[in-house]
């Protein structure tokens, strides 16, 4: 399982440390792993994507979403999370 909150923070650190090549406006992780987030000490697994809102071209320009290879099941989630990064609430 993928800890979504920790992973987003980790991606930001990778960017800051120059470990993601190029000059990117958005960095997005697509994973096949089940995702979870901690909410008030409880683990919430009803999650298929997460992103920082309104952060395109900024320090926190990251998002992540789940997709299962060859199914394209995650396309709607990925589009949804990318819209958050671009500023949609």
UniProtKB/TrEMBL annotation:
An example Gene Ontology molecular-function term: metallopeptidase activity
Protein name (record): Reprolysin
Organism this protein belongs to: Rhipicephalus zambeziensis
